[in-house]
Design brief:
The complex is a heterodimer. Chain A is α+β, with helices and mostly antiparallel strands. Chain A folds into 2 domains: 118 residues, no CATH class; 187 residues, Cupredoxins -  blue copper proteins (Immunoglobulin-like, Sandwich). In chain A, a hairpin with a 2-residue loop joins β1 and β2. The C terminus of chain A is likely disordered. By secondary structure, chain B is mostly helical. Chain B has a single domain, classed as Cytochrome C Oxidase, Chain A (Up-down Bundle). Chain B contains 18 helices and 2 strands. Chain B has a two-stranded antiparallel sheet. The two termini of chain B are 22 Å apart. The chains are: A alpha+beta, B mainly alpha. At the A-B interface, α1, α2, α3, α4 and β7 of A face α6, β1, α10, α11 and α12 of B. Bound molecules: protoporphyrin IX containing FE and copper (II) ion (2 copies). One copper (II) ion binds next to loops of chain A. The site of protoporphyrin IX containing FE has 24 residues of chain B, from α10, α12, α13, α14 and α15.
């Protein structure tokens, strides 16, 4: 019922608008088309200048309302991110000035030079000096922005420091998996053809380096104030590791590993205070459309103190033992694991 | 001018003009309205097909905005309308992504490429350069019918069981290559690729025709530097299309091979749904290079015609020459060249070599220079003008406003260090909708309002036009301006629902607001469509050949020109298109010889 009512109202509005439009056309014919045109001209010129003024107020108002919801007030949570924010501010400043000047000129000229009976347009087809001026001035500003930008770009994309904590990030429809290299600090080899059952990442357990690797899903722990390096993979389609709080992002491409690194500045607990949001979490958003569950491909990063991180890491069981519980040492010592070796091929063959 | 031109012109003249009078008696409904070879009729076919697509594409956006604005609500009537795609009155995620993908594809290719340059290149090129028709009217007709075929195929993909393509308008593989990864990548994707192949054939036929017509069929005296800026813009548009669409075709064909013939151009190391695929050695990123090598020029294919038409309309209605004609041509040329050299700015986060990336940063920001030149030239054209606010002029001014707003955010995105944060967020959505979507639509509306009297011999209703303009400009800013803030908060694009995200859910109220406005703006477009159809039959009649007091040649034809455009000889051109307000005269048509005492500049 309400639907029909709604449709009826919309149709009514259309009919009214149409009747007004038709009537105004008749009126203009009666009044003299030229006179009606001039009147419309004045109205539109007035509306244009009003649009400018209300628009600029609107821009201010919009900023007031939504600036607090952006990431600026809580600040970037990584070292590089702070520089990015500075650059964002500079770019907003420069483009903001250009925006206001050009929009004001556009609408103000439109208003000021609206058609008037005693006014003649000024014949002004070109002026080389002016044209050179507005070729060079933007070029100079852009050069400055490019120089700044590239400086940071090369820094961001440089190799991670040697002492970085390495975490392998793997995206799949629709979730994230993380692998830590374990005590030997080397990630074991993988081969996608080994992906089967519990070995969901296709780890090659013939590689001794893989035996102490730790595999967790969805939630990652990392220490604060240390460079973190992600080695990024995807299993099925392209995903993207989006880290808005760290101002970082990198595609996860099947078959082509990528990397990124950053240094987190605040623990999750500290961010709860900085953001004023007691539920704050660092989230990983998938930023490349990857299928129907794209919007729910969420990961969580817990940034904690070095000590907490070490404690968490020590409490994790290497993946090798969760997949092959019979190989797990009876003692809880993890170190002894690295001495054992099992040819995986035979295990897989028997498990078929 | 040169002999060759007058010879060609003579040939055309013989071909069309003498038998022309008889011809009109022989024309049947089919040859006049359906398989027409008259460029003006083909233009109308492109325009009306484009308008139908625009309504469909716009409706899709209203549907997915309904989901974004009201993620918690259900709408039982949606289930009546869409069946299992809206089970329980809620748009399903698969269908949401299908809607988003089709919205992008339809608006970018079918509306703003075919509907925009298809319409105005066809309509304006012969009329403004003084030709009786296109170089090849037959290929021109085929261009439309290939577009029609592409439309039919794309439309049919909406009705297949597994749904239309749903991997985004950029159809990145492996998602688009693997039916196991997404139901939209089943038969819907094959239809998408086939349709696009037809579409590319259409735009190549059209583009080659436009280029050869502009180069060869200009009337006597119409040197290249006397051409109106619309023609220059349409010329560069056609060149961009001819050079870049084949690359997309190659990408589409390779993708079809990967999908159906077991090749591995874009596939490697994939496990999908527990299935281990044999493909190794392909590169998913290669496709993105192929796609964006077209994709970036494509955005200028959409923009340049709008720039050209706005330049023309601003000059006519300012009663003042366009400021810096040569700089306007030069900046169009610079944009066209640079458009081929910046494609990887869409790929800064793919793991691109940073050194290579730095060149793309440089070249991308370089585009801002010719863009700035154009903006300042438009502003200077308005300075000390005597402006008439026809609906076309209002839309042209709106075009400049949106081009400024959206071009400036390009400077953020072109800077790779910032793009890492902003890529694939709503900031990008805001950027390209403002600079490409809305700005080009404004250019297109300006063109329709300005040349409608030439197309149909009647005027559009002004009151409806003013309502259309004001609702659209206000609404478009209300929709897209706040999206920058969502993007600065890192809110990703192409999300079906944000309520599960601690980082993004605070924008629920804003999303609802945007959805409501988008429905209002959509309704305003219906007013325009209504005005268009109504005025074809019932609009005020045009009573003079040159209602806007313009200089260009189309206004020297009869009010309703027949096939062949000019009744007698094609007029000769003696001057550029922008002698407005010169020597105290309001306007001096291009056909008027240069006077003895006329001033030089
Ligand atoms: C000052 C000039 C411009 C610059 C520097 C610029 C820069 C960029 C960059 C770097 C991106 C990639 C953003 C990302 O995905 O992270 C982008 C996206 C885009 N730009 Fe621009 N742009 C400019 C003007 C334009 C114009 C004039 C148009 C169209 C007429 C346009 C249309 C688009 C479109 C459609 C996309 C997004 C495509 C997609 O991912 O779906 N841009 N722009
Ligand atoms: Cu994903
Ligand atoms: Cu681009």
């Amino acid at each position: 019922m309400t639907q029909i009512l709604l449709i009826a109202i919309v149709v009514m509005i259309f009919i009214v608008i149409f009747q007004i439009a038709k009537a105004s056309e008749y009126v203009s014919v009666l009044k003299g088309e030229e006179k009606a045109r001039k009147q419309n001209n004045k109205i539109n010129a007035f509306l244009l200048i009003s649009f400018l003024i209300l628009g600029l107020i609107g821009v201010w108002w919009c900023n007031d309302m939504f600036y607090p919801k952006t990431l600026f007030p809580m600040g970037a949570a990584s070292e590089m991110g702070e520089k990015i924010d500075l650059m964002l501010y500079i770019t907003i400043g420069v483009t903001g000035v250009v925006f206001v000047i050009t929009q004001v000129l556009l609408f103000w000229f439109s208003f000021k030079y609206q058609e008037k009976d005693n006014q003649k347009a000024f014949y002004f087809p070109h002026n080389t000096k002016l044209e050179l001026l507005w070729t060079t001035v933007p070029a100079i500003f852009l050069t400055v922005l490019v120089v700044f930008g590239l400086k940071y770009w090369f820094k961001m994309t440089s190799d991670a420091p040697k002492d970085a904590v390495v975490v392998e990030v793997t995206g799949h429809q629709f979730g994230w998996e993380f692998r830590y290299p374990g005590a030997d600090n080397i990630l074991g080899k993988k081969n996608y053809k080994l992906t089967k059952g519990a070995n969901s990442l296709g780890v090659d357990f013939n590689d001794p380096a893989s035996l102490d690797d730790i595999h967790v899903a969805a939630t990652m722990h990392i220490p604060v104030n240390r460079p973190i390096k992600f080695v990024i993979n995807a299993q099925d389609v392209i995903h993207d590791v989006g880290l808005p709080h760290f101002r970082m992002k990198m595609d996860a491409v099947p078959g082509i590993p990528t990397t990124l690194w950053f240094t987190p500045l605040y623990t999750t607990e500290e961010m709860k205070i900085r953001s004023g949001n007691p539920n704050f979490v660092y989230e990983i958003s998938c930023d490349q459309i990857c299928g129907k569950g794209h919007f729910s491909m969420r990961g969580v990063i817990i940034v904690e103190s070095e000590a907490d991180y070490k404690m968490w890491l020590a409490s994790q069981k290497p993946e090798y033992y969760t997949i092959f519980p019979d190989k797990a040492p009876k003692s809880t010592s993890i170190d002894s694991a690295s001495t054992k070796q099992t040819p995986l091929a035979t295990v897989i063959a028997t498990s078929k | 001018m040169s002999n060759t031109i007058s010879l060609q012109e003579a040939a055309i003249y013989q071909e069309h003009d003498a038998p022309h009078v008889e011809h009109q008696h022989h024309e049947t409904f089919i040859t006049k309205y359906v398989f027409s070879q008259d460029h003006k009729m083909i233009a109308k076919q492109f325009l009306i097909t484009g308008m139908i697509w625009a309504v469909i594409g716009g409706l899709f956006s209203v549907l997915f905005r309904l989901q974004l604005g009201y993620p918690e609500s259900t709408f039982p009537w949606l289930e009546d309308l869409l069946g299992h795609w809206a089970k329980g009155g809620k748009i399903q995620p698969e269908f949401y992504y299908a809607l988003v993908t089709m919205h992008g594809t339809i608006l970018v290719f079918f509306v703003l490429t075919a509907g925009l340059s298809g319409t105005f290149a066809n309509f304006l090129i012969p009329l403004q350069i003084g030709a009786r028709d296109m170089a090849s009217p037959l290929l021109n007709m085929l261009s439309y019918w290939f577009f029609f075929l592409a439309s039919i195929i794309m439309f049919s993909s909406l009705f297949v069981q597994t749904g239309p393509a749903s991997g985004g308008w950029t159809i990145y593989p492996p998602l688009s290559a693997l039916g196991d990864a997404s139901s939209g990548s089943k038969i819907g994707m094959d239809l998408w690729l086939t349709s696009m192949a037809m579409f590319i054939v259409s735009s190549l036929l059209g583009g080659l025709n436009y280029i050869s017509t502009i180069l060869n069929l200009r009337t006597k005296g119409m040197s290249m530097t006397r051409m109106p800026l619309t023609i220059w813009a349409l010329f560069f548009t056609a060149v961009l299309g001819v050079l870049s669409f084949p690359v997309l075709l190659s990408g589409a064909i390779l993708l079809l091979f990967d999908r159906n013939l077991g090749t591995s151009f874009f596939l490697s190391d994939i496990v999908v749904n527990g299935k281990i695929l044999p493909n190794e050695g392909g590169s998913a990123i290669l496709f993105q290079h192929l796609f964006w090598f077209l994709g970036h020029p494509e955005v200028y294919i959409i923009l340049l015609p709008a720039m050209g038409m706005s330049s023309e309309i601003i000059s006519v209605n300012s009663r003042k020459p366009i400021f810096g004609y040569m700089a306007m041509v030069g900046s169009l040329f610079a944009i066209a060249i640079l458009a081929f050299l910046v494609w990887a700015h869409h790929m800064f986060v793919t793991g691109l070599n940073p050194f290579l990336g730095s060149f793309f940063v440089l070249l991308t920001l370089l585009i801002a220079v010719p863009s700035a030149i154009k903006v300042f030239n438009w502003l200077t054209t308005l300075w000390r003008a005597n402006i008439r606010f026809t609906p076309a002029m209002l839309f042209a001014i709106g075009f400049v406003s949106f081009f400024i707003s959206g071009g400036l955010t390009g400077i953020f995105l072109g800077n790779s260090a910032l793009d890492i944060h902003l890529h694939d967020t709503y900031f990008v959505v805001a950027h390209f909708h403002i600079v490409m979507g809305v700005a080009s639509f404004f250019g297109m509306f300006a063109g329709v309002y300005h040349w409608f009297p030439k197309m149909y011999g009647r005027y559009l209703n002004n009151t409806l036009a003013f309502i259309h303009f004001w609702v659209t400009i206000i609404g478009a800013y209300l929709i897209f301006w706040p999206m920058h803030y969502e993007g600065l908060a890192g809110m990703p694009r192409r999300y079906y629902d944000f309520s599960g995200w601690e980082s993004f859910k605070m924008f629920a109220g804003l999303n609802q607001f945007i959805s409501v406005i988008s429905m209002i703006v959509f309704a305003a477009q219906i007013i325009f469509i209504f005005n268009f159809i109504y005025s074809i039959f019932k609009g005020r009649r045009v009573t003079t050949t040159n209602p806007w007091g313009a200089n260009t040649l189309e206004w020297t034809t009869p009010i309703r020109p027949g096939h062949g455009n000019w009744v007698g000889e094609i007029p000769e051109v003696h001057r550029g298109a922008y002698d407005y307000g010169k020597d105290g005269r309001e306007f001096i048509p291009q056909t008027e010889p240069v006077g003895e005492n006329e001033s030089h500049h």
